[in-house]
């Protein structure tokens, strides 16, 4: 029963934090710090990542279908073709850096104090980006230079505590996109990024041998996909009304809590 409850808890955390700008690394630490629970291994990580990936693909299924059709040379849908190209370009930096030094970054920085500090630091940068954003460009007004910069900013997601969605929303805000379109670009960018992460996770799992409990993995997949879907839906619906302040304040508090827990 304890294993089931832990799998549900971790899947909920993954589903919530994958797309909100609040750092999944920081939240996944809390069960072990507070209750002494251990993580459920690479196979469970893969199941929950597949769940969040399924959720974002299903949520943006119409947009994705339109982007796929735009790749036809006969298509006149230049906006979606450009968006597809920019998403691919934005993915390249984190793939290259992840292949070269990703393991070293994770190994050197993955401890509670640095996660707490990174959480607070990048929350502050997100706040600066939000306050300095004086324009409200749409997704289709994104430029090549902006796509490259967002991709470079996404490299910071390799630092535990930075938050992938947080750093990409931050960069998009600096580039003048509206908060809603910044979030939308971040979520769409999550598709190739999560796919890339899955490749590495599966490779590590195969190298280390299989350790799979199908029922637990299925539970993690279902819970994370449902939570992620409604997280995206609610965030995009209300983000322009609630702004970014609640998430920044929350991350400051979370960082302080993590620091207090290790004192």
List keywords for this structure.
single chain; 263 residues; mainly alpha
Give your account of this protein's structure.
The protein has one domain. The protein starts with a helix and ends with a helix. 41% of the residues are buried. The chain is mainly α and 263 residues long. The protein is built from 11 helices and no strands. It is globular and about 55 Å long. The mean pLDDT is 87. Helix content is 79%, strand content 0%.
Distance between the termini: 32 Å
Poorly predicted ranges (pLDDT <50, ≥5 residues)?
none
Q: How much is the radius of gyration in Å?
A: 18 Å
Total helix count?
Answer: 11
State the share of residues found in helices, binned by percent. over 70%
The assembly state of the depicted protein chains is single chain
**Main β-sheet: number of strands, strand sense, barrel status?**
none
Average predicted local confidence, pLDDT: 87
Count of the separate structural domains: 1
